[in-house]
Amino acid sequence: MARWDRGGETSVPDWFWTAVETESVEHTVEVDECDVFYRTWGEPSNTPMLLIHGMNAHSHWWDFIAPQLTDEYRIAAMDLTGMGDSDYRYAYDDETYAAEIVAVCDDAGFGEDVIVVAHSFGGVMATKAANLFPERFGALVLVDSGIRPPDEPVPADGPTMGGGRAKVYPSREVALERFRLFPPQPCANDYILTYIARHSLMRVDGGWAWKFDEELPLTLKGGERHPEDYTGLTLPVGIIYGELSESCRKTTVGYTSGLIPGDVPVVEVADAQHHVFLDQPLAFLQAVREIMERLRAG
Predict the structure, then answer these.
(1) Is 91 helix (H, G, I), strand (E, B) or coil?
(2) 3-state SS assignment for residue 74
(3) Using 50, 70 and 90 to split pLDDT, how confident is the model at 160?
(4) First vs last Cα of the chain: how many Å apart?
(5) Rounded to 5 degrees, what are φ and ψ at 208?
(6) What backbone torsions phi and psi does residue 182 show, to the nearest 5 degrees?
(7) Can you give the pTM of this predicted structure?
(8) Whether pLDDT at 5 is above 70
(9) Who contacts 289 (Cβ-Cβ below 8 Å, separation ≥6)?
(10) Could you give the CA distance from residue 67 to residue 82 in angstroms, rounded to a whole number?
(11) Nearest Cα residue to 262 out of 228, 290, 234
(12) Which helix (H) or strand (E) holds 36?
């Protein structure tokens, strides 16, 4: 894509451009009459790793992360249905999302050693998948995703782009100005937000809209988190979370890791909020590598 920082005041680090300009291969696989879109990077002989985005996000959120892991991993990043470039459904549920995760792994040629790295809502669905298909995955890394203690208040949830139902904007420029993270948080890396926003829009009648189904939260079934989702896990699990996250606090991490059988390595990313890999992308990459070293050693 065009380097929007040229001639401007914004300074974008070279590592970012190197990553996002790395070519990926696009794929689709059909699950329950809907096309599920995903992309791959890296050598087929490397250890397989699947990246799963959060609510109302998409695979391009990983564009500046995935290519930096290809020295060791064969990467796939998927769009859950109702988001990104995957099809919309009339209704959504956890079992279908689990089937989509498995289908992408199968279509990508990933074996049973595949490592799933999943953020937020994606982590919830990956946890459901690991319970439904316990022999299909090699390890699970939850990124700012878990279950709160029963006595911890639950913040209000909402769409990633903010503001309720999806809106149609008269121009791409107007829409880009309205891009917001949810949960609301500042992010010092404006260039990352600009990149994600540019990949989050689609043409519709009358203008531009975000690439997510506004009916998804209204029709989703099975999205709740239950303690047995975590006590039932039989694969190695690690947790990465943001030091400043309001969505996945230390108490949440402690409660979640206490439910999961076995040793659960945890890495806290300093100065990061819920969108850990947007706030601290290089520290997040280091955290992934550290978690994997500890899981292999365990």
Answers:
(1) coil
(2) strand
(3) very low
(4) 41
(5) -130, 145
(6) -135, 135
(7) 0.94
(8) no
(9) none
(10) 25
(11) 234
(12) strand 34-41
The C-alpha atoms of residue 52 and residue 84 are separated, in whole angstroms, by 12
Residue type at 109 in one-letter notation: G
In whole angstroms, what is the distance from residue 149 CA to residue 273 CA? 19
Residue in 33, 234, 27 with CA at minimum distance from that of residue 110: 27
Q: What are phi and psi of 73, to 5 degrees?
A: -125, 150
pLDDT of residue 137: 98
Take residue 5 and report the two structure tokens written for it. 């920082």
Residue 66, class by beta-carbon neighbours within 10 Å (0-12 exposed, 13-18 middle, 19+ buried)?
buried
Backbone angles phi, psi at 287, to 5 degrees: -65, -40
Q: Dig out the tokens for 293 from the structure.
A: 């070293």
Question: Is the pLDDT reported for residue 72 higher than 70?
Answer: yes
Q: Residue 291: which of 45, 54, 41, 72 has the closest Cα? A: 72
Alpha helices in 89-132 (DSSP H): 94-107, 121-132
